[in-house]
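Lab meeting prep.
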Amino acid sequence: MKFAHIADCHIGAWKEEKLRELNIKTFKAAIEICINENVNFILICGDLFDSVLPPINLIKDVVRLLKQLKDNNIPCYVIAGSHDFSLTGKTMLKVFEEADLVKDVANNGFVTDKTGVKIAGLYGKKTSLEIEDYKKLNKDLLESESGFKIFMFHTALNEFKPEPEIQGMEYTNLPKNFSYYAGGHVHYIFDIIKNEYGRIVYPGALFPNNFKELWDFKSGGFFIFENNNLIYKKIILKDTLNIEIDISNKSIYEIREELFNLKDYEDKILLLKFMGELNGSISGLKLNEITFKNAFVVLKNLSRIKTKEAKEVILKEENIEEQLIEEYNTEFKDLIKDLMIILDKEKEEGEKNIDFEKRIIEEATKHLNLFN
């Protein structure tokens, strides 16, 4: 018996077009590996898509790949994750299930694969609301079933989570007596065997989902389980080059010169992380003029920059420096800083783009007192 364990594909997550395409190409590569490895079945443990209703072009790409699995007689078992779960049940996963491309196992019972493996699972919800659903599981039924059993879940486990601020639950909330617990949601690679339970595994994200993950992991992958052995399949379609630039005690000219002299980034994902105190304004760096034409894509992280005008400029990983006001005005300095904080807020899990935009506009409008 041989199966693949995939999680957190987050197809459609990247705003940067080249990285969005690289994400779907990574999913394609994973499917091709599974076919070439002749796995008996595939598990996708939540967040196949980054949203409940992804763009139609991405849906078409995924359908084409899932059809390849069906043509090769490889079943695909899925659960929804915190990003692609909907309380109404109206998700692409349900559409795929109706088309007989996948099988949703989050039904409080077992689905039996042709190999005889019995698969059950529970979906993930935004803000980890699925934790309450574990109290409603028919654990007696799940635990008493014999044979090789897999439980698919999309939840952080407090004892093993990589970052303490991630909301999770104790692993003892899982039903006992399963051979394999196929996890998703936390983007790190983890494997442990617990008495009375079984093997608990997280494969990490199939493709890095943000600047930090690209910086830390450079790539993603998935697991193949065969004869009680786990084999990690790393997928690297583009190399990543991390460059940390200390701007302390340097003039803007020196910083720009250092950037112009960077080498060996051709056809790579170039990650630029700036740190230190800037002698001048960020706009003075004119980062948009430095294009790195031969790089595959360039991402900049300005979160650790401090300036003499404002001791700490709150910026995220995206290239939003071009949106900053050209020069600070003493009269409106506090207002500018407050607006930067508002504009720096991120979309909440499950929040639609239109709702996110409305929330930010309302907060900014209220702060500016435009209609008072």
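Slide two material, second protein:
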Amino acid sequence: MMTKAQAFSLALIVVACACVRAVGGEIVTREVEYEHDGTVLLGYFAAPADASAERPVPGVIVVHEWWGHDDFARERAERIARELGYAAFAIDMYGKGKLVSTPAEASALATPFAADRSRMRARAKAGMEVFAAMDEVDAARLASIGFCFGGTVSLELARAGEPLRAVVAFHANLATPLPAREGAVRAKVLVCNGAADPLVPMEDRARFIREMEAAKADYQFIEYAAALHSFTNPGADAHGIPGVGYDERAERRSWRDMSAWLEEAFGAER
């Protein structure tokens, strides 16, 4: 893990900083430019306004869907800060400004990472290290959550044994060429899956459970009745992809399940 000084030598905090009124107070947000393997990346940080070096709070990495680092990922980061009181960092896997709108474009960006899980893990770890070095963040209490492609990324961080307290994967691809070794998974792993998701085959679900059992991981696998792929994203239906759709009930239940999972992993202390 990088020191705070090393990470900030790679990261440029954009001067513009926003304060957003929240029910329990204010949150602060800022864009964070950083680099990995020659690629400039743009993340988005959100935290309670009273988080500081003197009062660091647990941190949650948010990994975007295969569309890229978009408003959905940023909204989830803000919601974590506002509702749960944690710092959050929506990392960037593709590169600054790389957003797409068609499945073909998204596949072109996501497939190289799916084919090279070591690269996927390294790119996500770069964002995690920049985040962990921030003054507002308690680096001893980190988690990663992700959606679709981002859920797969978060699971790969868990399989790699990164020092995370928890990982939550929403409607993720569960298959991997690098299954977790026994004792390697340090995070508590929660998978939130749509029971009717045709993009996550039953065999992949069963294989994932066998993998977690063999790794002796602390995990939970939840299926939400009638939910399709991307059930957490209100904009999921816009692309007209078969098997993909928003489900308000499943989103609400999975957010509640995630919140409880993070609270257990981080402990009662804030």
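Talking points for slide two:
Residues 1-23 have pLDDT under 50 and may be disordered.
Residues 168 and 258 are 7 Å apart (CA to CA).
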